[in-house]
């Protein structure tokens, strides 16, 4: 989860490049920067297919408050 591009499609779409499916989950990972500058939160709205592919990517930065969480987006 190092994709920090803001060029994702309109809100509500999967954050993955080239995927137009509606986002149904938010994947959140909170970890400690290696530099010790503090916690970083990486959040991405994804379709079910890409949510399924997600996994903790920053275990090197795990600390007491480390979080890897998948939350359903409550519908509109
Ligand atoms: Zn997708």
Order the strands across the largest sheet as they lie in space: 2-1-3
* Terminus-to-terminus distance: 26 Å
Using only CA atoms, what is the Rg?
13 Å
Which strand-content bin applies to the residues?
Answer: 25-35%
Share of residues in helices: under 10%
Quaternary structure: single chain
Named once each, the bound ligands are: zinc ion
> Overall 3D geometry?
elongated
**Average predicted confidence as pLDDT:** 87
Give the topology string: H per helix, E per strand. EEHE
Structural class: mainly beta
Sequence stretches where pLDDT stays below 50 over 5 or more residues: 1-9
Number of helices: 1
Total number of beta strands? 3
Main sheet specs: 3 strands, antiparallel
Sequence-ordered SSE layout with sheet pairings:
Blueprint: E1 25-32, E2 39-46, H1 48-53, E3 67-72
Antiparallel strand pairs: 1-2, 1-3
Bound molecules: zinc ion.
Residues 14, 16, 19, 21, 46-47, 49-50 line the site of zinc ion (ZN).
